[in-house]
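Hi there,

I know you've been waiting on this one. I reran it after we fixed the sequence typo, so this is the corrected version. Both the input and the resulting structure follow.
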Amino acid sequence: MELFINTHSEMDIVYIKELKEIIDFYGISVCSVHPFTSFAESYLFFSDYPRRTADGLRIYDRYFEICNILGAKILNFHGFKSEKSIDFEKYCHVYGTLFEKAKAAGVIFSQENVRKFVCGDMAYIKRFSDYMQDSVAFTFDIKQAYMSGYDPNEFSKIVMDKLVLVHLNDFDTENSCLLPGRGLFDIKTLFTGLSSFSYSGNYVIEVYSGVYNNEKEIAESVKYAESILKECLL
């Protein structure tokens, strides 16, 4: 599973250790953590205010600590919002700093393709990937590619060589986020493409709470996705 930290109090180490006990009791594996401060990353890391940047780095050091306690290898990053302009090399420098800090802590700092953020754009993320070479990792989210106006299967090709996590979801002409199997997305093509590229990371169903009514629907979606994936791996 991917664990969302939803507020500052949930970053308390005592709380995280209690959560770890529950996770272990139920035999759950946490592969990734999603910070609630994603919305503020433009403000924390890309302004010209050094104290705020230093505080932001300390906040993310705590996330890395949380990942280690939970056994998660990945922390997701949204980055800079695209309605404002940012120098490309500055973006790369900021990401690179966080990537190296995460690496030193045993965590992968993974850039996600989020709409309305600079790396939600295919051309930008391709340029970014080429520039960063081996010092970058990606989380690919189907719905984010779709909401950004792209064919998700085409977008996935841009990041698949450095892909560490896939957020699975679906969509149709009226809904931008559905459980896998409830929409029109060709998930088999995605699985086939990534399998042929020897992708070995996790697939996590990541949807909004309003798109399902109960846990049974999620379980059915898991079975659907697993059945398609098994076909592609044969």
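Quick highlight: The chain has one domain: 2-233.

Best,
R. S.
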